[in-house]
Queue: 4 jobs
Job 1
Amino acid sequence: MRIVGVVDLLAGRAVHARAGTRELYAPVRAVAGSPFEYMGPTGPGNAVALARAYTDRLGIKELYVADLDAIQGRAPQDTAVAAVAALGAPLWLDAGVSSIDRARHALDLGATRVIVGLETLSSYDALGEICHAVGGERVAFSLDLRDGEPVVGSAHIPSGEPAHVVAARAASAGAGALIVIDLARVGMGAGIDLELIARVREAAPDVTLLAGGGVRGPDDLARLSESGCDGALVATALQDGRLRAADVAAAERRDRHGSPTR
């Protein structure tokens, strides 16, 4: 099971996301439950330092950057994104991508996977066009939820459809990976809706499936694996010490059925 360390960027700082209330996000000050001694003269919220703490101290092998400025239609944080990508860990980048040009730009910044989020997607046709242009294996669809309900930002996308139907549509459009993330659960320690994850897995059995928003510790990772997840996005539990390097290593030895791999 892949454990992906999350770096949420806002105004050039790595911030601690909580319940999707972006105006209240504050710079990250600790990793693994101890003060973040690697911040240097720039103070708390250094994105590169946070990414290095994930990889060097906790054994995280992949990173996820959410450029919250770009997602909200403001100037993107390209310099910070490129600096994190330069560390060399495979990078999943969510930067409000909704067109082929922006997808290519994300890849040019160093992303391994470009994320197309439901929150900013204009249509499923646009998702299909992006997948065709850059390769579906390089595209992850973010199934953005709030309290279990899909967050639809375009009139060209049907509203009111359940999450597993949206997931099936994204898989049919060519996305090679799905990320299920409930914004209301982010940073709140509320756990993940495992029944919803199981429905999404059944609706899209052949894609890489990750979940985020609410991971509390090792037990949640084990349950996600048993529910069919291939990986999890994690931020708060890594930062406050509920997940340690040994927990990350143990989780990565599990397959999507919860069984240890050799």
Note: The first strand starts at residue 2 and ends at 10.
Job 2
Amino acid sequence: MSQAGSADKAVERVVIVGSGPAGWTAAIYAARANLNPIVYEGVPTADPAPILPGGQLMLTTEVENYPGFPKGVTGPELMQLLREQAERFGTRIVRENIDRCDFGSHPFSLSTSGGTTLRTHSVILAMGATANWMGQANELRLATTGGGVSACAVCDGALPVFRDQPLAVVGGGDTAMEEASYLAKFASRVFVIHRRDALRASKSMQDRVLRNSKIEVVWNNRVSEVLGDAFIEGVELTDTVTGAKRVLPVKGLFIAIGHSPATRFLAGSGVALDAGGYIALSTRSSATNIDGVFAAGDVADSVYKQAISAAGMGCQAAIDCERWLAARGVH
């Protein structure tokens, strides 16, 4: 990169892709460091579940575990506050997607869904990851209205509405086992619904669930319908062997069938991904394998997937990016 690039007004210092906790936190830090960041916050899509600017928290009603909100805050309110804080320090916001990235040479070239191309010295990728849903209309409706359907037990399981109630978890992998074990601390009973006769989870995770007297695995069944109007009342189960149907009354449903990182548009960009499609990062750093490209939040985190950990990664990415730009004379 030429040192004269810092004076080229046609080249951005940093472009932040994504508008969840990681993206807004990165924007706050970058803006306060006088990097004049621009955030491409995305546009709403349905594929098949809603994907909204602001990320997974836009589908969350009560958030009780984000520090600084002793009485809790709704997901959309939290994201709006973070957005306003980023704007306060001068962050520019564009409601478009980044559809293609050319990281082959400096400055980088990014193509937007609005048909424009911009150049930038550095990029922070913070697109997040979306929960995989079953795709049923009532499932998604109740998930977006606070009706007792969730994709994160650690986020929502301790809410008063779920305490001492029968709850269900859909899935058979390690995530489902973790969710069920966590929910068992609060629920009267936890049903793990799995479409097969054997779990996919590791042996240790299976043993933890199968030894817990409050957890019951419902084998060879799938959820064919989510029941309830304002709040979930139960699920209709269909036996995957016989086809028989029955209703399982529950007061909460937790979908644990994985997440999909929003990295499809990076195909051919050269950014290294792990086996799950998440962005691979350097050890103890937000740096990707491409010099000048950083990543933060759930798009690079297959383990924690929490708003607060995403925000922390956004902070790291902005600081790493600022230091990278300074070392190259870009101010």
Note: Residues 133-255 form a domain with the FAD/NAD(P)-binding domain fold (CATH 3.50.50.60).
Job 3
Amino acid sequence: MLLLGGCAVAPEEDPVQIRLNDLDSRVGRIDRIVSNQSLMQMAQRVDSLQEEVRTLRGRIEELQNDNAVLKKQQRDLYADLDKRLSDTAAAAAAASTAAPASPAPEADEMAQYNRALEQLRARNYAAAVDGFRALAASHPAGQMADNTQYWLGEAYYVTAEYDQAAAAFQRVLSGWPNSRKAPDAMLKLGYTQIEQNKLAAARATLQQLVAKFPDSDAARLSAERLTKLPK
């Protein structure tokens, strides 16, 4: 009997198994690569979405700030208009206790004027515009004609119809340069020109107001506004 000595001989590996093991190893490496790429793509997508969210939040904050500014501007417009209407009512009450002016406004003119003014007080701006325009057409040279044009301009101004507002304020200055409403009309014309981005014209208007009516409240407001205009 032949005896085998020395080390035992390892059984020969199956080629098919070797091939399968190699394929398994390759598939594993491919899975890891694909997984890593997918994770990178997902991370990039998350970063992109986070950037979009930050951008949108920034835009929302800008819009909220713009809205707050617009609301404040609108409140200021209403407050200014209410003050001017109150001043007008007080002046009318004082005038009614004084000696009657000569010549006095016609009853029909005064009735139309009061109706339009009441619409303005109630913030029915479209109705106020219609009322003042009708009054201007029916009494173009009436005793309240300068006031009519001024309040027509105010109704247009508060609704941001700046071209029409400027035209109405300019008619006061052209037709009644020495009217009690002239300083206020010049002030609001300057404000209107600012809203129209006609800054050079606005500066000239406000400077003219300070020079022509230096002791008026309108001149004081004009001087304040001039300091805020860009050079």
Note: Confidence is low (pLDDT under 50) at residues 1-10, 93-99.
Job 4
Amino acid sequence: MRSLITQEQRAQLLANGAEFNRNEDFDPLPVVKLFTPDAGAIWLLASLDPDFPDLGLALADLGVGCPEMGSVSLSEIEAAHGALGLSVERDLHFVATRPLSAYARDASRARRIVTD
């Protein structure tokens, strides 16, 4: 199976997951933005669980106007396809500018994930 994240991103996601396990108030910057080019789904992935590295914490919007924060399966995201059969992609230009909670707050107001 292809991987949507680089080894460097995986290392940062796992480090964020370890910090989150130590400090439940930890509010990391998202590390990677994944999206479906043909379905409007977006995931801002902030951490991976060191004990279960397929499980992560993300702000997700499946393109229906209801963004929410929660657990995601990286392998399920990697296997997903949009309406036209296109695979999920990584936004190569995404650079987080604020913590995940700020993206979640803005997404709640806008009813979609706003990254610019």
Note: The longest strand covers residues 42-48.
